[in-house]
Amino acid sequence: MRQTWRWFGPKDLVSTDDIRQAGAEGLVSALHHIPTGAVWTPEEIARRKAEIGTMTDGTPSGLTWDVVESLPVSEDIKKQTGNWREHLDTYRESMRNLAAAGLEVICYNFMPVLDWTRTDLAYRLPNGATCMRFDLADFAAFDLHILQRKGAQEDFSDELRATAAERFASMSEADKAQLAGNVAFGLPGAAENFTLDDVRQHLAEYSDIDTDQLRRHMAAFLEEVAPLAQELGLRLCCHPDDPPTPLLGLPRIMSTEADYTWLVEAIDLPANGITLCSGSLGARPDNDLPGMMKRLGDRVHFLHLRNVKRETGEIRGDFHEAEHLSGDTDMVALVRAALAEEERRRAAGRTDAEIPFRPDHGQDILDDLGRQAQPGYPAIGRLKGLAELRGIIATLSHRAA
Q: Does residue 278 surpass a pLDDT of 50?
């Protein structure tokens, strides 16, 4: 398993020096400054590769750009409106440019409007560390009383609506603004960070798109890009919904093993694959992560290894980002299944036998608490996670003399 680390570019408060010292072998990055729908030019790709390959004092870092995360799919493509055909053309051109630069793995997602969603970006734990958290009652308070989405009442039980009303009544104006900002934070480092009016507008544009239609749109997207990826030697891997349940009345189509089975069967090409994110999928108690790795492993092109602690037993419930070995996903069993998949690939002579993984997210601990890096992407919390995952890998891979 190849150890990688997410980096948001030169503005990231976790530097390439930090990453090299943490022991990562390669980086996961993207051209976050380029607007969605625009071409990633060879010049911009080369600039990012050079930045990754250089430490802050100008000496070589020895790091490589291993995974693109993400090459974003525009809302127009997801809705098949506006400039969606032009955006397909630019997406394919960006793929060609990335392949020409030696990149092989492209992560993307098909979540409408928002990427990952949390209600608290710095939830304090008993030991003083902070982490990201999703609280369904707080989210309901946002949806019902701040966003005031039409039809939101139907998405929550009487009990939850009552709790949300109490929460909202107790909030100061600063609390309301903080909650709205947390929910609408969008993708860290992305060119777009949505306002409430932006969210309302996007929601209105999805009002006539249900789950089946969004799935058809995704299949149409894959029909356009997966054959090209196969031709170019690229591996596309779709990230799951986060959290993996419906939000804001929007359709969600990548939340379960059944969804991923549909994905790989819809366009049956090796290039059409999966980003198996144990944190996103692990927020649902009915998702069996080690089993998914065993059953769908031949299409897993990228692993996000993180853990969440579910605070309720419901499919849609509260959860927070846990330490990598202390959440509800059996991380040892998941890594064991990934290593077994690598052995199968080596036996089959596959050139992609080594699966890249990154220690996804992490708790803010020690100096992270003052660093104020991207929410969910601290230096020391992820270093701790990487060390724990390395320990699992080393133990499971050990062969006594």
A: yes
